[in-house]
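Example (one chain per record):
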Amino acid sequence: MQSQYIYIRYGKRLLDVAAATAGLLVLAPLLLVIALVVKCGSRGPVFYRQIRIGRGRKAFKICKFRSMVVAADRMGPCVTASGDPRVTRIGLYLRRWKLDELPQLWNVLKGDMSLVGPRPELPFYVRTYTEEQREVFAIRPGITDPATLAYRNEEDILAAATDRERFYTEVVLPDKLRLNLDYMQRVSLGFDLALILMTLRVMPPRRMPRANILEIRSTTTSRMGEEEAPPRVKNALRAKSPHARKGH
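Predicted structure:
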């Protein structure tokens, strides 16, 4: 539709710049406090920067508050599960409340990211994408999206998997990309605002009423309002469990 094209071409960026600018100004005192706590809480820099792949398959450095020990990426898998010893004490709270993601407002202001869009992945994972899945690179990656909401308890989900890296690559990531592609077909100002509101409602993670804003439930999971894994992931975990294997 023409209205969708106009929003994607012009409106989405205007929303990003306005919201990111306002967010950085309003949250400046909080950002300063978090920076001081991170610096005093453990050895290492305040910010963590990592290469991710964005629109047009161009690499950029995503910015977060550091929530793990220095060189954590060389001490274990790329994915993080609940109970990961690499996460610092301060990092546990930052990750629970998603406060480590706040510096990405700067990425949004720079134009690397959008408020809403497919979450950017590491080059390692991008190399596994199919031709269809690579369509997510047609728009800017975002801070939140339907997949982020559906997998808000991703660390708990991965903790239940035997091979976390493989489970993420073969089960979680494909399902996320499916949700991302569906979002791209439905992107609009109203849908983006609804997703932003839903994101704010699920921080920190807690039991919530079922979501029904703009049929978000149908694009994520049939029970998005509850603290549980998406159905496809639950089925995969059940299939990989020892009890399930005994039945075959």
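Caption: The first helix runs from residue 2 to 26.
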